[in-house]
Design goal:
Elements (H helix, E strand, L loop, with lengths): L2 H16 L5 E4 L5 H6 L6 E5 L3 H8 L3 H20 L2 E4 L2 H10 L7 E3 L21 E9 L6 H15 L3 E8 L2 H8 L5 E5 L3 H8 L4 E3 L15 H8 L4 E3 L13 E3 L5 H11 L4 H12 L1 H18 L1
Parallel strand pairs: 1-2, 2-3, 3-4, 5-6, 5-8, 6-7, 8-9, 9-10
Length: 309
């Protein structure tokens, strides 16, 4: 339960099991001072990164604390990356960023994106309404890079135009400010809070599209890689996002990418997707979001790393 003891334990355990394997693939822990030292003892460690940590910390911990932790991460995180055998990033952009910020650009790096086992996700029931476009925006906790504020700002200018034509279901924890704002547009946004799987699938059954992260640029990112997007596609739900996802081809028809997200764009994409069969969306997505495909590519990278050492 206590961060220092937890860190001691996982590095002790990592050191033990690293002696029994070719590579130890280990998620990077930000601002881990102990890890910067302990990582020197595990030369076969592969460091896995899900974000640009230095840019992300001030966003998830606003104020002096976040800025201070970012400074610590810039120092100790770089040291940890330099001692790793290789780097995996959920996007190519992140993998390149990590080796560059650690000043080791020649270190082997590769992409290992978020993906899912498709057979574990069932296609949604189809309860779409012909007279209303419905979209779902779902997060455990809405953060700045999700970009909900962009839609709220749009609603403040154009609420009457979309009320009764578009409904956006917000599932997850909102900040007090966002909750208050969204509540003022009750004919456009419906707030559900956190829901279990049975409940959120019931909401999604009426939806024409899902909404992914709309403002990853706030983390300095131009590519995304999210489990949520993969899960929505596996359920047969097209996705509206602010940046392209690394697993999808640029011309994928069931993902609408826009650098300027808007309620008008969501409405138009929802109308376009309303008549598309959910099973067709899942089948078209499967080859891109299936975990086995990306696992095989990562394993091939590790084979070359081992054999070339």
């Amino acid at each position: 339960r206590y961060p220092v003891i937890r860190s001691l334990y996982w590095w002790w355990y990592a050191l033990r099991i690293s002696k029994r394997c070719d590579f130890l693939v280990m998620r990077h822990a930000p601002f881990d001072i102990l890890g910067a030292l302990a990582s020197l003892l595990i030369p076969n460690r592969v460091s896995v990164h899900h974000s640009r940590e230095v840019e992300e910390l001030p966003l998830i911990r606003p104020g002096l604390l976040g800025r201070s932790l970012a400074v610590v991460e810039r120092l100790v995180g770089g040291s940890s990356i330099r001692s790793a055998r290789a780097v995996l990033g959920v996007t190519r952009e992140i993998a390149r960023y990590e080796v560059d910020r650690a000043q080791c650009p020649s270190k082997p790096h590769f992409v290992y994106p978020n993906s899912i086992v498709v057979r574990h996700t069932e296609v949604l029931q189809d309860a779409r309404r012909p007279d209303l476009v419905e979209a779902c925006f779902m997060c455990g906790r809405f953060s700045p890079w999700h970009g909900l504020d962009l839609l709220l700002c749009d609603a403040s200018r154009n609420y009457q135009h979309f009320a009764g034509r578009l409904r956006i279901h917000l599932i997850g924890n909102l900040s007090d400010e966002d909750r208050l704002c969204a509540s003022g547009f009750d004919r456009l946004f419906e707030l559900h809070g956190l829901l279990d799987e049975v409940a959120f699938r019931r909401v999604l059954a009426s939806c024409d599209i899902g909404i992914g992260s709309l403002a990853l640029s706030r983390q300095g990112m131009s590519q995304g890689s999210t489990l949520k997007m993969c899960e929505m596609l596996a359920m047969g739900l097209p996705v509206y996002v602010g940046e392209p996802d690394v697993v999808l081809p640029p011309d994928f028809p069931f993902s609408r990418v826009t650098r300027s997200p808007s309620l008008e764009g969501i409405l138009a994409f929802g109308e376009e997707m309303k008549s598309v069969n959910r099973a067709a969306i899942r089948n078209a997505s499967k080859e891109y979001i299936e975990k086995a495909r990306w696992m095989r590519e990562a394993v091939e990278f590790l084979y070359h790393l081992r054999d070339g050492a």
